[in-house]
């Protein structure tokens, strides 16, 4: 459930991700290719997403960085806030994760690739991308803070996940979204994601649909 982007990039059109694991560039969507028949990602002025700097700028300065094990306390705080704010978007619960000891949060960050968007007002959102055994990747745990919604933060997080996937040559990036969550589907669709036709049970009364981004092949 948890919803909750290769080549030489023009940094005027990319956001730079920083963190303990080193710099990471959020690619401009034009460098990624897209699934056949999908519309190209759209970044309209009204989203607040604009280039022109070496970092990602979204209605003010927003940096996206890859979290490391040392960030576990920050990750815990943001994750618990997400579970409290949007419980319907996650398969886990606030009560369950509040009981986790520090080792659990550290192990999560060591085993997963979690990106955080940091705005002038504090954490703006998080997303995690995982490599799967079948040679694809899965996007999970997507959440944007209420104060950061509608400002392009979700776009930057998805581009970070797509970039991680592309750099590793994985076949596609998949995700699950609650059926009927049109706002989330529109966000994913403008980055080239499309429904695969697969579904799965979610929370009671809320099925989930699978979406996937398939990189263009040379």
Helical fraction equals 10-25%
From the alpha carbons, calculate the radius of gyration and give it in angstroms.
16 Å
Q: Given the helix and strand composition, which structural class is it?
A: alpha+beta
Parts with pLDDT < 50 across at least 5 consecutive residues:
2-59
- Fill in the CATH topology: Aminopeptidase
How many helix segments? 5
CATH architecture grouping:
3-Layer(aba) Sandwich
What general form does the structure show? globular
Number of strands: 11
Classified in CATH, the superfamily is Gcn5-related N-acetyltransferase (GNAT)
Average predicted confidence as pLDDT: 77
Largest sheet: number of strands, sense, barrel closure: 7 strands, mixed
Cα end-to-end separation = 32 Å
The count of domains is 1
Q: How would you characterize the overall build of this protein?
A:
InterPro entries: Acyl_CoA_acyltransferase, GNAT_dom, YpeA/RimI_acetyltransf. Keywords: Acyltransferase, Transferase. Pfam families: Acetyltransf_1. This is GNAT family N-acetyltransferase. One of its GO terms (molecular function) is acyltransferase activity, transferring groups other than amino-acyl groups. With 218 residues, the protein is of the alpha+beta class. The protein has a single domain, classed as Gcn5-related N-acetyltransferase (GNAT) (Aminopeptidase). It is built from 5 helices and 11 strands, in the order E-E-E-E-E-H-H-H-E-E-E-H-E-H-E-E. The strands form 3 sheets. Strands 5-6-7-8-9-11-10 form a 7-stranded mixed sheet, sandwiched between helices. A hairpin with a 6-residue loop joins strand 1 and strand 2. Helix 1 packs across helix 3. It is globular. The relative contact order is 0.20. The N terminus is likely disordered.
């Amino acid at each position: 459930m948890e919803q909750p982007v290769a080549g030489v990039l023009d940094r005027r059109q990319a956001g730079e991700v920083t963190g303990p694991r080193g710099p990471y560039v959020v690619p401009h969507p034009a460098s990624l290719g897209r699934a056949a028949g999908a519309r190209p990602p759209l970044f309209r002025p009204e989203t607040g997403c604009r280039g022109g700097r070496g970092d990602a700028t979204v209605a003010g300065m927003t940096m996206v960085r890859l979290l490391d094990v040392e960030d576990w306390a920050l990750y815990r705080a943001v994750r618990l806030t997400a579970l409290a704010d949007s419980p319907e978007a996650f398969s886990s619960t606030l009560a369950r994760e509040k009981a986790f000891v520090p080792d659990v949060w550290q192990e999560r960050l060591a085993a997963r690739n979690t990106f955080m968007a940091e705005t002038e007002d504090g954490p703006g959102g998080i997303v995690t991308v995982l490599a799967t055994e079948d040679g694809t990747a899965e996007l999970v745990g997507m959440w944007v803070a209420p104060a950061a919604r509608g400002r392009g933060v979700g776009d930057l997080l998805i581009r970070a996940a797509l970039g991680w996937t592309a750099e590793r040559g994985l076949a596609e990036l998949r995700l699950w979204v609650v059926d009927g969550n049109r706002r989330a589907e529109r966000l994913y669709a403008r980055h080239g994601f499309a429904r695969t036709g697969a579904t799965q049970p979610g929370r009671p009364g809320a099925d989930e649909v699978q979406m996937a981004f398939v990189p263009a092949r040379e």
